[in-house]
Amino acid sequence: MVTLQGQQIYLRALEPEDLEFLYQVENDETIWEVSNTQTPYSKFLIRQYLENAHQDIYEAKQLRLAICKKDTDEAVGLIDLFDFDPKNRRAGVGILIQNEPDRNKGFGGEALGLVIDYAFQQLQLHQLFANIGTDNQPSLTLFTTFGFEKVGVKKDWNFTHNSFKDEALFQLIKK
C-alpha cells in the first residue's frame, strides 16, 4: 500500500517492528473503553496478528494503519477500517491517538481525512460509519467536523465502569 501523507503525519501499514507499540496500545486499560477491549493481549498473539497484517482489506475485511509523526517517524496512534463490506461499499472507521500529550494536535484529523479520501477514491466506498460513545466529546467533534452525521443512538450499549453508556452511530455518505 502506498503511504498516505499529511502535513504532520503519514499513515503506513503495520510492520513487525510495531510489536511493542501495539502491545502498549492493546494493554492500556485507559483506552479499552473506546477500543472495545476487555482483556490484555500477549506479545505472542500480537506477533501472530502482525504476521497476518499483510492480508489486504478484501481478505481480512479490515485495514489497520499506524499514524506516524513525519518529523520523528514515531507511531502515535492507529486508524482502522473495519467491517469492510465491498458488496454494499461501506466500512467502519475507528481512530486512536495513544498518549494524551499527542492528542489535540491535529494528528487524528489528518489521519481521518486521509482515510476518508482513501476509502472513497481508492476503495470506491459509498459510505463510512463510526460508533462513538455519546460522552466521547473529542471524537464526536472530530467526526462531525468531517461531515459525519448522527443517525441514531444505541441506548445502554456499552457496559463500562459499572454502568451502561449510550453509543451513537454516525455515517458519512459519499456525495
TrEMBL record:
This protein's name: N-acetyltransferase
GO MF entries: acyltransferase activity, transferring groups other than amino-acyl groups
Statement: the UniProt record of this protein carries the keyword Cell membrane: no
The N-acetyltransferase domain, residue ranges: 9-169
Keywords, sorted A to Z: Transferase
Pfam family, one: Acetyltransf_3
Keyword GTP-binding: no
Species annotation: Flavobacterium silvisoli
